[in-house]
């Protein structure tokens, strides 16, 4: 007779082990290895299947599956809708992660208050009065929002049965507690079990569930990595707490692209959707300042104009400092080396500080040329001409390289009133009509000649 087969799995990263150990060798977490049954004792037999056996789902041709009545819920928030891929899919499970205080509860409560659908907002973190006080600031009159302060999943499901909401929001998964598991709320097995219960509920009833998840110091969603595999969509809410802007992005999305991005501004009465992000990211000075350059970047599918500021000064200490905020420091070093070699700038004895304004960070290579322009402008203390912006990558040989979706970048720059954009000579531009001067350059030296004469 076959024996029950078990194996040991790390509850954090899912690695399989032959025997128990105190620490997972893969993810270095302590006390996460648990024995699990991988094969039940009784082997499957053909007989019950031949005799009708257990009921199973039937196979259908994909062309016969009807999705017409599966309309997505419009969340009345264009940024959130877009990041989800066009609204909330019925029966889906969305995980919203973010650092404490970034505005997760604010965002979800604000959405819940404005929805025309019956929404149940379950909070394990705040009291009814606290939620009401926040709600009054966000949206004083709301008819469809129900609040529940409860952490036991079984009791939450009982309330759900009574209220029968269209959408359920859980704030947060780390506060939930299932009776079927011994350990305390926030532990890995609790998080796993509660998520599994909620997923079953979502799939069986077709009610979408939005879960809030906290983030650990290293920026991952607290709890097992498995949590991210279980849910349909993982969203991250990020931004510097000291700045007003918040960015919502999809890290995983079964129902849409992960390239989309939503931008919000935190205000006294909640989060405002920012439909034209370039405006807020570019500082408005009438006189041109040296050391700043505007670049046309892409965040997701969206073109975005951002400002780069550089400060080049004589190094006081032996080794020059290179500091980059919002930009990869290694890439900055590379660009400086290219400048030294190709353009003869002696930056070796200079401190270079680079900052992307607005507290955002960018890894789009298309901002290279703008970084170089800002550094050169600061070094020579000559402001760049007004209305000029950049969109090109720089190679090690000092060549100006093409970037993707150049037409979109050019259009966005034109829309915002820029008069000239520097792009690579090798970039194919499909635009027929435009009101912006497109300066095509092939080498870093060309750019320097054009800008600084
Ligand atoms: P919160 O939603 O509680 O964060 P999380 O749930 O991610 O931990 O966000 C709280 C922060 O937002 C807090 O620092 C105050 C600020 N805030 C505003 O600036 N304006 C507002 O209208 C609200 C409700 C909060
Ligand atoms: Mg909160």
Characterization of the model:
The chain has 453 residues and is of the alpha/beta class. It is 27% helix and 26% strand. It has helices spanning 46-50, 78-84, 104-114, 128-138, 153-163, 188-205, 225-230, 277-281, 329-343, 368-380, 406-415, 444-452; strands at 5-10, 16-17, 33-39, 93-98, 119-123, 145-148, 167-171, 209-214, 233-238, 245-253, 261-267, 270-273, 292-299, 302-314, 322-325, 350-356, 388-390, 393-394, 400-401, 420-424, 437-441. A hairpin with a 2-residue loop joins strand 13 and strand 14 (302-314). It is built from twelve helices and 21 strands. Helix 3 packs across helix 4 and helix 10 crosses helix 12. Mean pLDDT is 86; it is low at 41-50. Strands 6-5-7-8-4-9-10-11-12 form a nine-stranded mixed β-sheet, sandwiched between helices. A seven-stranded mixed β-sheet has the order 15-16-14-13-17-20-21. The chain folds into three domains: 6-37, no CATH class; 72-275, Rossmann fold; 280-452, Ribosomal Protein S5, domain 2 (2-Layer Sandwich). The structure holds thymidine-5'-diphosphate and magnesium ion. Magnesium ion binds next to helix 3. Magnesium ion (MG) binds at residues 104-105, 125, 171. ATP binds at residues 98-105. Pfam families: AAA_25 (PF13481), ChlI (PF13541), Zn_ribbon_LapB (PF18073). GO terms for molecular function: ATP binding; ATP-dependent DNA damage sensor activity; damaged DNA binding; hydrolase activity; zinc ion binding. It comes from Muriicola jejuensis. This is DNA repair protein RadA.
């Amino acid at each position: 007779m076959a024996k029950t087969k078990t194996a040991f799995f790390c509850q954090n990263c899912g690695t399989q082990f032959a025997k128990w150990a105190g620490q997972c060798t893969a993810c270095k977490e302590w006390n996460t290895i648990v024995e699990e049954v991988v094969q039940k004792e009784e082997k499957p037999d053909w007989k019950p299947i031949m005799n009708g056996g257990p009921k199973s789902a039937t196979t259908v041709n994909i062309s016969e599956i009807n999705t017409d009545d599966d309309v997505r819920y419009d969340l009345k928030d264009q940024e959130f809708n877009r990041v989800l891929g066009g609204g909330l899919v019925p029966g889906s499970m969305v995980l919203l992660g973010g650092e404490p205080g970034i505005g997760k509860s604010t965002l979800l409560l604000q959405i819940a208050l404005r929805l025309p659908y019956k929404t149940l907002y379950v909070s394990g973190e705040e009291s009814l009065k606290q939620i009401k006080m926040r709600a009054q600031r966000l949206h004083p009159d709301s008819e469809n929002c129900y609040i529940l302060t409860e952490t036991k999943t079984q009791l939450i499901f009982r309330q759900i049965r009574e209220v029968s909401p269209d959408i359920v929001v859980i704030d947060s998964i780390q506060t939930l507690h299932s009776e079927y598991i011994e350990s305390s709320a926030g532990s890995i097995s609790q998080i796993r079990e509660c998520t599994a219960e909620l997923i079953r509920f979502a799939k069986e009833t077709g009610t979408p569930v939005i879960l809030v998840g906290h983030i650990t110091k290293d920026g991952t969603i607290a709890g097992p990595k498995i949590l991210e595999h279980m849910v349909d969509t993982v969203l991250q809410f990020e931004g510097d707490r000291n700045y007003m802007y918040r960015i919502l992005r999809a890290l995983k999305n079964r129902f849409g692209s992960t390239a989309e991005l939503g931008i919000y501004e935190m205000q006294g009465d909640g989060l405002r959707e920012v439909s034209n992000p370039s405006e807020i990211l570019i500082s408005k000075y009438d006189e041109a300042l040296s050391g700043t350059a505007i670049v046309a970047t892409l965040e997701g599918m969206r073109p975005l104009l951002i400002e780069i500021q550089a400060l080049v000064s004589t190094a006081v200490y032996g080794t020059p400092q290179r500091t980059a905020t919002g930009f990869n420091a290694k890439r900055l070093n590379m660009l400086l080396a290219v400048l030294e070699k190709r353009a003869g700038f002696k930056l070796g004895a200079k401190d270079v500080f680079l900052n992307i304004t607005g507290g955002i960070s960018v890894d789009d290579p298309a901002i290279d040329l703008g970084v170089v322009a800002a550094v050169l402008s600061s070094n020579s203390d000559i402001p760049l001409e007004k209305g000029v912006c950049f969109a090109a990558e720089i190679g090690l040989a000092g060549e100006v390289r093409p970037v993707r979706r150049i037409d979109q970048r050019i259009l966005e720059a034109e829309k915002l009133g820029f008069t000239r954009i520097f792009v690579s000579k090798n970039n194919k531009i499909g635009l027929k009509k435009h009101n912006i001067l497109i300066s095509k350059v092939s080498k870093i030296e060309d750019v320097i000649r054009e800008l600084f004469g």
